[in-house]
Amino acid sequence: MKKNLIFWIALTAVIVVTGTGCEKGDLLSNPNVASQTSVVPVSLILNHMTYSLYAGGGVVDSRPGSYNETPWDQLYIWQQYYVSNYPYYRGNNFYNWSVSATEYDLLKYAGLLGSQAYRQFSNYTNKYYGLAKFFQAYSLIWYTQRVGDIPAKQAGNPTAYPTPTYNSQHDVYQYALALLDSANTILGAYNALPTTKPGAAFDASGDIFGLTNLQWQKVVNTYRLRVLVSLSKRATDNADLNIPQQFATILANPSQYPVMTSNSDNMVFKYNAAFNQYPIFLHGWAPYNGYANICNTYLNLTTSTKDPRTFVTATPAPGQIKAGKLVGDFTAYVGADISTAIGTIQTNSANSGMYSFANYSRYYTSSSAANAEPFILIGYPELCFNIAEGLNRGWSTTGTAATWYTNGIKASLSNYGLSQGQTLTIGDVGGTTLGTVTVDINTFLTNVAYAGNNNAGLTQILQQKYVAFFNNSGWEAYYNWRRTGIPAFSQGGAGIGTPSNLIPRRFQYGSDEALANTTNNKAAIQSQYGGTDDISQNMWLVK
After folding, report:
1. How far apart are CA 243 and CA 245, in angstroms?
2. What pTM was estimated for this model as a whole?
3. Are 210 and 519 in contact (CB under 8 A)?
4. What are phi and psi of 402, to 5 degrees?
5. Which of 129, 196, 208, 542 is deepest in the core (most CB within 10 A)?
């Protein structure tokens, strides 16, 4: 059910409580469901919200339905990690999105979590109330970075503001960053208290990520650094946002603003064959990777640097092996160009074995639900690269960009279980063994040694961040490309209906907004995009 902006974080929201969990309830009053005057266990609400973070809101395009933010879904084609060579199973390679989905549901439950936390613990400083602020900020940023200006400060009070005004993207980010700071303060205070204090400890049944109190605080600050870095194009022309200063303050005060310190702090969704199958199996896709070739945007980066992640994410192109190349030869791994016609990709793949496929043994065997890497939503490798980028830009003197850059690479390698001297078996479809390779991390690290706090060093940071985003972290790879142009995405013939077939720069507002809040929605489109809800125009964030 589509939610209107006027109901964001609605304090009149209701929730259906069943024996199995929390369903999406109607926003209107209903005497047959538990309303917000009842005390709904906050753990139950948190369970719904944490899963919502994993599932994502997706993007609605010309086809029915929306796309999740889960591994091997359409958005990872758009982020050029793999390409489809057969549209019936994998969709197409066109950037044919239009209307954005929303996180209205998460915003609604953020308000519900806050109000129910107060009812349950009789204060506005309990940990669940702090988490509600994090989820509220996350929801606002999730949507504004897709469309531009949105209602934020008047959202969630339909009685007082039935048609809320749109806040500028500048003001939305300022508001969201303040929410994150408040969330950190609340969570930090409770980390110092005994877990016997009401609200001090999270009910483990409510958090699918299984994070401790301290780890949730680390998530908040790690996410805040992501947000600050995403504002890099506005860091010098918006002094009131204090972007470099906020970044420097977090790095200089780890006790007050703890951040992730290893992969063990990652916010991850873990898969298992029994209950949480890997998405390839969950979606019911055919158990063969013949419909997914790895994209050359990704493989060109990994093969040119002799990156061992090549061996765990891809297989050598069959044609290269047939021609006599060994499985350890990085030139045997060849990616497909997303701008090539899908029929041509299919022919080249099926008849000539021209391109590499997704690693069958890692992602497509019956046991891959347990063997594939966990899905990172907010993680330590990205944090390292974000800190490295901020240091490269001169935002802080705490630490060195070179150290954080290297830490990020090592953390990503560790996420795949790679170690120096390790022997990997390279297999093809059906479990056929093609040979073995020896992992050489030392040579790879030499090849990608940091070039210094200059443009070359910044390019390295952004390229390695992109490689680390392979099939995780939702839309972050696209957002980083949109902000920096790194890595270079193939664009020729990519779009439909966009000028020169360029990759879209944003998403359109939902039709429900135009109907429910027509005047303000039109005014926002006029002030930002000259009256046309144009996906090819840049928003304030990336101008």
Report:
1. 5
2. 0.91
3. no
4. -60, -45
5. 129
